[in-house]
Amino acid sequence: MRYGALILTAVMATSSACASARPATHGNDHASPGRTPVIGASSMDSERDIVLAVANPIEPPSVHAGSSLLGYTPARRYGAGQRAAADLAALKQKYGLRELTGWPIKALGLYCVVLEPSPGVARDPVLKALAGDARVRLAEPLHDYSVYTQESHGSPQDNDPYVSLQRGFIETDAAIAHNFTQGTGVRIAIVDTGVDTTHPDLRGRIRDVHNMVDDDTVAFNHDSHGTEVAGVIAADGDNKQGIVGMAPGATLSIYKACWYPPTPAAAAKCNSFTLAKALTAIIDTDIRIINLSLGGPADPLLNQLLARLLEQGDIVIAAMPPDGNIDGFPVDVPGVIAVRMSAVSAALPGILSAPGKDILTTQPGGGYDFTSGASMAAPHVTGIAALLLSLTPKLDAHTIHDLLLRSSKVSNGTVQVNAASAVATLRSMHKAGY
Question: I want to staple 24 with a disulfide (CB 3.0 to 4.6 A). Which of 9, 18, 77, 159 is the partner?
Answer without folding.
Answer: 9
